[in-house]
Design goal:
The protein is mainly alpha-helical. 81% of the residues lie in helices and 0% in strands.
Length: 226
């Protein structure tokens, strides 16, 4: 009886560990974003983000943030799909509509000499699926640089060398110069920080994609179920 109880307890523990490992990719994704959101809230409470809510910087910063949110949602959805498919492949029973299921069906119905071609096609398809997130992340840096240029244009547009001898005009020029520099610096910072945030999520997605490709090819070689 004691051995039976011990075995049952071990099975329960093993099942719990297995469930945890099945969604390890999603857990990593959630942990990274939870830490990032926590740091963002802490910075807001410290007042470090007040400059982003001024009329000069808010519009460009909001545009960059919207692009980031689109990339984050896209990355999250693809991370979930990769995780689900990876779980199915590891138990040897991928769904027919999944990437792995389609690959195994193509391999089964084709000549063995073309198996390497199908494996290369699978790598290419899945790599292209995740590359979109990387492109969105890269666009955040370029949007930040565009904001930098716009900020310098705003700053320099208020400078009139002929009016520097007038005290009243100098005050207005300094105000415009400061506002322009704020746009340049804040948009650059927003683009850079959100790029780092999204590229970390992308690396999680890319790692999961590599694992899915590897597991699918291993299942193909061992004659997994179709």
């Amino acid at each position: 009886m004691g051995n039976t109880g011990q075995s049952a307890g071990g099975d329960v523990i093993g099942e719990e560990v297995g469930v945890t490992h099945r969604y390890l990719l999603v857990l990593r994704f959630m942990l990274v974003n939870l830490v990032a959101v926590s740091l963002l809230v802490a910075a807001y409470l410290q007042g470090w983000l007040d400059g982003f809510f001024t009329s000069y910087t808010m519009e460009l910063s909001a545009a960059i943030t919207l692009v980031f949110l689109y990339g984050l949602v896209t990355c999250g959805a693809r991370t979930w799909r990769i995780t689900v498919e990876l779980n199915d492949v590891k138990v040897g029973n991928p769904k027919p509509s999944s990437w792995a299921g389609k690959h195994l069906r193509n391999v089964r119905d084709s000549d063995p000499a073309r198996h390497s071609v199908h494996a290369g096609a699978l790598r290419l398809k899945l790599s292209n699926r995740v590359a979109g997130v990387r492109h969105i992340a890269n666009s955040l840096v370029f949007l930040g640089l565009i904001g930098t240029v716009i900020g310098f244009i705003i700053a320099l547009s208020g400078v009139d060398p002929a009016a520097t001898t007038d005290v009243d005009n100098v005050a207005a020029m300094v105000s415009t110069l400061v506002n322009g520099m704020a746009v340049a610096l804040y948009t650059t910072l927003v683009g850079a920080v959100l790029y780092v945030w999204l590229i970390i999520d992308y690396r999680i997605l890319a790692t999961g994609t590599v694992h899915l490709i590897t597991a699918t090819i291993e299942l193909e070689e061992t004659g997994g179920r179709h």
